[in-house]
UniProtKB/TrEMBL annotation:
<dbReference type="Pfam" id="PF07549">
    <property type="entry name" value="Sec_GG"/>
</dbReference>
<dbReference type="InterPro" id="IPR022646">
    <property type="entry name" value="SecD/SecF_CS"/>
</dbReference>
<feature type="transmembrane region" description="Helical">
    <location>
        <begin position="20"/>
        <end position="38"/>
    </location>
</feature>
<dbReference type="InterPro" id="IPR022813">
    <property type="entry name" value="SecD/SecF_arch_bac"/>
</dbReference>
<comment type="subunit">
    <text>Forms a complex with SecD. Part of the essential Sec protein translocation apparatus which comprises SecA, SecYEG and auxiliary proteins SecDF. Other proteins may also be involved.</text>
</comment>
<feature type="transmembrane region" description="Helical">
    <location>
        <begin position="299"/>
        <end position="326"/>
    </location>
</feature>
<feature type="transmembrane region" description="Helical">
    <location>
        <begin position="143"/>
        <end position="159"/>
    </location>
</feature>
<keyword id="KW-1133">Transmembrane helix</keyword>
<keyword id="KW-0811">Translocation</keyword>
<comment type="similarity">
    <text>Belongs to the SecD/SecF family. SecF subfamily.</text>
</comment>
<keyword id="KW-0653">Protein transport</keyword>
<keyword id="KW-0812">Transmembrane</keyword>
<dbReference type="InterPro" id="IPR005665">
    <property type="entry name" value="SecF_bac"/>
</dbReference>
<feature type="domain" description="Protein export membrane protein SecD/SecF C-terminal">
    <location>
        <begin position="122"/>
        <end position="174"/>
    </location>
</feature>
<feature type="transmembrane region" description="Helical">
    <location>
        <begin position="242"/>
        <end position="261"/>
    </location>
</feature>
<feature type="transmembrane region" description="Helical">
    <location>
        <begin position="332"/>
        <end position="351"/>
    </location>
</feature>
<dbReference type="Pfam" id="PF02355">
    <property type="entry name" value="SecD_SecF_C"/>
</dbReference>
Length: 367
C-alpha cells in the first residue's frame, strides 16, 4: 500500500476558494510588476549584464558600510557589495569592467585598494570572473529562448497527452517557431520577441480549444511571473543560478499539474455526468496526499539548501522555495480553474474518450 496520510475521500472545496486565489495571485503579480518597473527594477547579474565579480574572504569581520566606502574609487566603477554567510568575513563584489583592463590588472587594483583601506585585516581573493557585454547579451537571449521553448513544448505535450491532438499541437509549434524566426529578422529584442510569442501561443490554444494545454501554460506563466516579481521586490540578482531555478520550477509545477489532470481524466471516464467543478474537486482531493508529500519534501530539502548551503547557492534555493509554494497552488487554483472556465463536462468527456474503451479478451466472443 502506498504512503498516504490523507484519505482519498476528503471533500475540501478547493474550487469554491478559487476567487480568493485569483485575488492573491493578481496582487502578487501587481506588486512584482511595480517592483520591476517602478521600483529598484529587475537586477540582472554579471552573467547577463556583463562586468566583474570578485569573491573575498577577510581575516576578520568587516562591516558593509566600511567595505563599500573603501571601494568607492574610480578604478572600480559601479561597485556593489554583498555579504554572505554569518561570519561577516565573506563578500561578493560586483563592478563594471574598466576599458582595456585584464584579470591581472583588476586583481592588483582590488588588492591594492583593500590593503590601503584595511592594513590590519588582509583579504584573500577567492574568485575573480569577468563577463563581457557580448557574452552577457548572448546568455540573456539563450536563457529567454530556453524558457520560451520549454513552455511551448510543454503545450504540445499536454495537447497530445490529454486531448489526443498531437497534430494540432505540432502544427502550433511549427507555426510559432516560424513566426518567431520571421519576427526576429526585424531586429526586435529577444525579450519582446518572447513576450509576443507567448501571447500568440495563448491565443492559438484558445482558438483551437486546447484547454488542457492552455491551463498548463497559464499556470506556468503565473508561477514564473510571481517568482520573478518577488525576486525583484527583494532585490535578488537574476543570474544563471536563478535562471536554472526558474526552469526547474517550470518542470516541477508541470509535474504536479499533470498528476491532477491525469486523475481528472480518469474521473471523467468513470463518471461522465458529474458537474465539472465537482470533478475537479474530487481529483484534487484524491491527489492531495501525494501533492503534500512531494511538495513538502521538496520544500524541506530546498529550505536546507537555503539555510545551510552558503552564499553561492542562496539565490537558487530562494527561487526554488518561492516556486514550490506558488507552483503547487497554481496546479489547483490556476491550471484546473482554466478548465472549469473554458468548458463543461460534456466537452472534456468527448476529449478523453477519443482514445477508445478497453475491451477485455473474450468480452464479445472474440479472443
Amino acid at each position: 500500500m502506498g504512503l498516504s496520510f490523507i484519505k482519498h475521500d476528503t471533500k475540501i472545496d478547493f474550487i469554491g476558494f478559487r476567487h480568493w486565489a485569483y485575488g492573491i495571485s493578481a496582487l502578487l503579480i501587481l506588486v512584482g510588476l511595480i517592483a520591476a518597473v517602478w521600483g529598484n527594477g529587475l537586477r540582472m547579474g554579471i552573467d547577463f549584464a556583463g562586468g566583474v565579480i570578485v569573491q573575498l574572504q577577510f581575516e576578520k569581520p568587516v562591516s558593509d558600510e566600511d567595505l563599500k566606502a573603501s571601494l568607492d574609487v574610480p578604478a572600480l566603477p559601479g561597485i556593489t557589495t554583498q555579504r554572505y554567510g554569518e561570519s561577516g568575513r565573506d563578500y561578493l563584489l560586483r563592478f563594471s569592467k574598466a576599458e582595456n583592463a585584464d584579470a591581472t590588472q583588476l586583481r592588483s587594483t582590488v588588492n591594492e585598494t583593500l590593503a590601503a583601506a584595511f592594513p590590519d585585516n588582509p583579504a584573500e581573493i577567492v574568485r575573480l570572473e569577468i563577463v563581457g557585454p557580448k557574452v552577457g547579451a548572448d546568455l540573456t537571449n539563450k536563457a529567454l529562448s530556453a524558457l520560451y521553448y520549454s513552455i511551448l513544448l510543454i503545450a504540445v505535450y499536454i495537447s497530445g497527452r490529454f486531448e489526443q491532438r498531437w497534430m494540432a499541437g505540432a502544427a502550433m509549434a511549427a507555426a510559432l517557431w516560424g513566426g518567431m524566426y520571421l519576427v526576429g529578422l526585424t531586429g526586435l529584442g529577444m525579450g519582446w520577441l518572447v513576450l509576443l510569442s507567448l501571447g500568440i501561443t495563448l491565443a492559438v490554444c484558445l482558438v483551437l480549444r486546447l484547454n488542457f494545454a492552455l491551463g498548463a501554460v497559464v499556470g506556468l506563466l503565473h508561477d514564473v511571473l510571481i517568482t520573478v516579481g518577488l525576486l525583484a521586490l527583494m532585490g535578488v540578482e537574476v543570474d544563471l543560478n536563478v535562471m536554472a531555478a526558474l526552469l526547474t520550477l517550470v518542470g516541477y509545477s508541470l509535474n504536479d499539474t499533470i498528476i491532477v489532470y491525469d486523475r481528472l481524466r480518469e474521473n471523467l471516464r468513470a463518471d461522465p455526468h458529474m458537474d465539472m467543478a465537482a470533478l475537479i474537486n474530487r481529483s484534487v482531493n484524491q491527489t492531495l496526499s501525494r501533492t503534500i508529500l512531494t511538495s513538502g519534501t521538496t520544500f524541506l530539502a530546498t529550505l536546507s539548501l537555503f539555510l545551510l548551503g552558503g552564499g553561492v547557492i542562496h539565490d537558487f534555493a530562494l527561487t526554488m522555495l518561492i516556486g514550490v509554494v506558488v507552483g503547487t497552488a497554481s496546479s489547483v487554483y490556476i491550471s484546473s480553474a482554466v478548465l472549469l472556465a473554458l468548458g463543461d463536462t460534456a466537452f472534456y468527456v468527448g476529449l478523453v474518450q477519443k482514445k477508445g474503451q478497453y475491451v477485455r479478451p473474450g468480452e464479445h466472443g472474440v479472443v
